[in-house]
């Protein structure tokens, strides 16, 4: 699977994603500059964490209207896969590629900690190797990760099973204490209607080797690699 | 022509920053603060033939970038008194 890692001025997790994809998973990967519009050579694009364009105005606001994100729209329209983590999730929401918005953490603190995620939907290319209710451990590192959506959007997300990850306790309960940022309904990650665009606040690339303290992040990549079937088309839901 | 865009969180959306500032004011003895919400002021200098066109362009900017319609409302104020009068007359 050919990966592209998008780099904006101010992105900080690009090298981590590049390292995990090339050195841990041994897959072809290239950096994609924020002004690039040609994405034809990729199967999956990663929008990494950081502070794209300094997060001026709002987190992900300027990046959400950048040339590369414009091209991502066409990329997703023809079935390309997109994984946005942390700032990447904020950018996808600002771009309207995912619904809702990410707001200042309820605690007002920047939170850099380990979180437990309950897998809610295993019917996406990113999670098909997991089982529903499985608990994954991955770190978060953000100041603006409180997911917000209006009641109709939330209803739609639930109806269509588009919530992929929820912050939970180690035994899978959705409690207030397990929710590090005050996200609506403990939401940590969602997909688009087709299941091909995943946005999540946690960092899978920071949980990809035992030396990092865990490898649960790799499970997402392994699911992905299993979903490009032999004839070169994606396994659809 | 100068304009001022006020961007605010929509009513009903919890403003954690505003609540923290209100509590801080309470701590300073301002116990008469009932509610406080934080917004943004964006000042724009724009080349436009008249106030109506300036307002229309800035409205477009708000929709495309300056405000996030999921969580924010905005208002546009044209700054100069004569421009404001012209804008009112133009409605």
Explain how this protein is built:
The complex is a heterodimer of chains A (237) and B (91). By secondary structure, chain A is an alpha/beta fold. Chain A has a single domain, classed as Rossmann fold, CATH 3.40.50. Chain A has helices spanning 14-24, 67-77, 87-94, 151-159, 216-226, and strands spanning 3-7, 29-33, 44-47, 81-85, 101-103, 111-119, 135-142, 146-148, 163-167, 187-191, 197-200. In chain A, the strands form two sheets. A nine-stranded mixed beta sheet of chain A has the order 2-1-3-4-11-10-9-6-7, with helices on both faces. In chain A, strand 3, helix 2 and strand 4 form a beta-alpha-beta unit. The longest helix of chain A has 11 residues, at 14-24. Chain A is globular and about 45 Å long. The two termini of chain A are 18 Å apart. The relative contact order of chain A is 0.17. The model of chain A has no long low-confidence stretch (mean pLDDT 94). Chain B has 91 residues and is an alpha+beta fold. Chain B has one domain: Phosphoribosylformylglycinamidine synthase subunit PurS (Mth169, Chain: A), CATH 3.30.1280. In chain B, 42% of the residues lie in helices and 24% in strands. Chain B has three helices and three strands. Chain B has helices spanning 16-27, 51-66, 81-90; strands spanning 2-9, 39-45, 72-78. In chain B, strands 2-1-3 form a three-stranded antiparallel beta sheet. The longest helix of chain B is centred in the middle third of the chain and has 16 residues, at 51-66. The radius of gyration of chain B is 16 Å and the shape is elongated.
């Amino acid at each position: 699977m050919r990966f592209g890692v998008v780099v904006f001025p101010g992105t900080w997790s690009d090298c981590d994603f590049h390292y995990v994809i090339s050195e841990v998973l041994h897959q072809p990967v290239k950096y994609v500059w924020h002004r690039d519009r040609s994405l034809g050579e990729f199967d999956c694009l990663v929008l990494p964490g950081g502070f794209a364009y300094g997060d001026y105005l709002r987190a992900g606001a300027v990046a959400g209207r950048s040339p590369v994100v414009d091209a991502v729209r066409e990329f997703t329209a023809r079935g390309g896969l997109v994984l946005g983590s942390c700032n990447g999730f904020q950018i996808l929401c600002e771009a309207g590629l995912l619904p809702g918005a990410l707001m200042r953490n309820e605690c007002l603190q920047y939170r850099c900690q380990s979180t437990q995620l309950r897998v809610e939907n295993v019917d996406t290319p990113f999670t098909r190797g997991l089982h529903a209710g499985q608990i994954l451990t991955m770190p978060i590192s953000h100041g603006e990760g409180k997911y917000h959506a209006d009641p109709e959007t939330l209803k739609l997300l639930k109806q269509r099973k588009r919530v992929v990850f929820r912050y939970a306790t180690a035994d899978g309960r959705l409690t207030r204490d397990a929710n590090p940022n005050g996200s609506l309904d403990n939401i940590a990650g969602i997909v688009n209607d087709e299941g091909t665009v995943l946005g999540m606040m946690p960092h899978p690339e920071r949980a990809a080797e035992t030396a990092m303290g865990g490898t649960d992040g790799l499970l997402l990549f392994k699911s992905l690699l299993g979903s490009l079937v032999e004839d070169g088309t994606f396994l659809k839901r | 022509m100068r304009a001022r865009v006020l961007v605010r969180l929509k009513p009903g959306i919890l403003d954690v920053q505003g609540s923290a500032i209100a509590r801080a004011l309470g701590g300073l003895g301002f116990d008469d603060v009932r509610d406080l919400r934080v917004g943004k002021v964006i000042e724009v200098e724009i080349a436009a033939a008249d106030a109506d066109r300036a307002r229309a362009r800035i409205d477009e900017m708000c929709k495309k970038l300056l405000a996030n319609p999921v969580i924010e409302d905005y208002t546009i104020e044209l700054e100069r008194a004569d421009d404001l009068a012209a804008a009112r007359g133009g409605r």
